[in-house]
Write a structure and sequence with these properties.
292 residues; 10 strands; alpha/beta; Rossmann fold; ten-stranded mixed beta sheet
Length: 292
Amino acid sequence: MHFAFFTGYTKAEIELASLELKLLMHIFYPTETAEQAIQLGPFILDVSENSTVSAGSYPLVIFSHGSGSMPLLFRGLGQYLARNGYIVGMPEHPFNNRTDNSGVDTLENFINRPLHLQIAINWFIEKSAFKSHLMADNISIIGHSLGGYTALALAGGIPTPLPFKDILPKPLTVVNDTRIKSMVLLAPATVLFSMEGALANVDLPILMYTAELDKLTLGTQQADIVLNGVKNRTKVKHKIIPNAGHFSFMNVYPDELKSVNIPPSQDPPGFNRQAFLDELYPEIVEFLRKGN
């Protein structure tokens, strides 16, 4: 397949002064410099590390991973978007990632996740070396699982945690960002928007995928929260992926890392993850090009 660009790759650490920590972000972007295979954590990917950004201006996509997950499980999506002319930021949510999940299921996590994305957007536009290459009026969010919650919250959703542990059902105050022009939801976790009117302020094009055999977000049940809750249902395109599981949106795991003890490496019997991803990535690019 011929692409307009090669994939540039770099990492950034953004100071979060108010939270007294740094936000790690993986960045994929268009470049004219040929790719080489490099090791990214436990994975190998063809990219051009720390290369020059191709001349021109590009849309910005921010990706939000799921609870206890990591951005590099979606490295193929970042690569594909960069090759098609997008600058992609994939932040690692502090205290809710694969190496440190100490903030899971806390109010702070639900509040801070959208803030992480807004901070990433501000950094790209105001401080990064990419700022002169950005279309500041063309910003989209892609979120998987709890990343779907994060995207909806940033776009104006009002979350209310379910009563569990020491958390009482009271609406949370989270940041929202009117610069978001469209979003893609992959197996989104949306139950925090179950209250009447929680998504009434979300009014933008949405491409939403749910997995037929998703045992974590229960697929269509949480999709219905979006379809029935957003301001304009006609702006939502919903696709149910037959025989897919919750993790089927991630990169295919290397054979040596596949194990029944590693759920993200597994799919329902008979599901071809790579064949699905080969269809998914172009659909996302087509949507992003039309959705804005």
